[in-house]
Amino acid sequence: MTGTLYNVTQTVFSSSDGTLVYAEAIGDKHLPALVFVHGLALTALVWAQILRDPRLLQFFYLVAYDMRGHGRSGKPATIDGHSSKLYADDFAAVSNGFGLNSPLFIGWSLGSTIAADITLHLPPDAISGIVWTAPMPYIDPDVIAAVARPEVQSLFPGLMTTDNVTLSVETKHAFVDTLFNDPPSVPWDIRWSWAGSSTFLKPEHLSIVTSRPQDPAGLFKAGARGLPLLVFSGGQDKQLRGEPVWEIARKYFKDSSVVFIPKGSHALFYDFKDEYVQELAKFAKRVFGIRK
C-alpha cells in the first residue's frame, strides 16, 4: 500500500438546527466506514496520522468531524444548542452527507459520549458498533466523578477562565501535556497544533459541553441487543480511569471487549499507534465480516 494516493474530502454539513459541522473523509467511499470523534477542546486534527494509515485505508473509508462547539464546526452558545438530539443529528448529517452505511463509531475521551446520543435518537442501524478510546462513556455527574482523575479536574477553572489570559494559555498547554506519556518527546508541530485547536472551544462553552443532559437508556438498550463494543484503556492515562468504564461495558453490553495497554496514555492512539491500529482493524473487520 506504500505510495498509494487517496482522495481527501474536507467539507461542512448542515445539522438539523442549521449548525455547520466540519467533516473530512479519506479513502475509498465504497468500503465500510469508520467515523472518528475527538475529545474535549480538540478537533479532528488529532486523528491525522490514524486517517492516513494504510492498514486501515486498505479496508475502510475513514471519516472524522469536529463536534459542535469545537474547531471548525458551529458553536451554539446555549444549553439548548447542545441537546442530545442535536449531537445525534450532527452525526447523522455527516453520515448521510458522505453516504455512509451503518459505520463503526469511534470516540475518544469526551467524544465517546456521542454514542449515547446516537443510540437514543437514531435508528438501530445508524452504527454497526462502538469503539471507546480512553473514554468518558456518557455524561452523568456520578460517572464523571468515578472516571475523571483529579489531575484533569484541577485544570477546569483555568480552562473556563474568561478574565485571565495568562492562566488560560498556561492551562491549555498543561491540558495538552496530560494527553501524552512523555510530552517533551512529542514533536512541537503536534503539541502546538493540538494546543492551538483548543482555543476554538470558548471558555464559557466548556461547562456546557461537559455537563449537557444525556440519557444512556439507548446505549444500554443497544448493548443488550448485541451492538459490539470495544474499549481501549491506558494504564498511565492522566485524565480518565478505565476500570469504571469496564464495569459499564460488562454490565450493559453482551458483546464487549477491552484492550488494556499498561503504559498507554490518554492519547494512546498516538503514543501506541501500532497497537491501536492493529486492534482497531481487527475489531472493525469482525464487525463488518471482513475475513482478509
From TrEMBL:
<protein>
    <recommendedName>
        <fullName>AB hydrolase-1 domain-containing protein</fullName>
    </recommendedName>
</protein>
<dbReference type="InterPro" id="IPR029058">
    <property type="entry name" value="AB_hydrolase_fold"/>
</dbReference>
<feature type="transmembrane region" description="Helical">
    <location>
        <begin position="31"/>
        <end position="51"/>
    </location>
</feature>
<dbReference type="InterPro" id="IPR000073">
    <property type="entry name" value="AB_hydrolase_1"/>
</dbReference>
<dbReference type="Pfam" id="PF00561">
    <property type="entry name" value="Abhydrolase_1"/>
</dbReference>
<feature type="domain" description="AB hydrolase-1">
    <location>
        <begin position="32"/>
        <end position="271"/>
    </location>
</feature>
<keyword id="KW-0812">Transmembrane</keyword>
<dbReference type="InterPro" id="IPR050471">
    <property type="entry name" value="AB_hydrolase"/>
</dbReference>
<keyword id="KW-0472">Membrane</keyword>
<keyword id="KW-1133">Transmembrane helix</keyword>
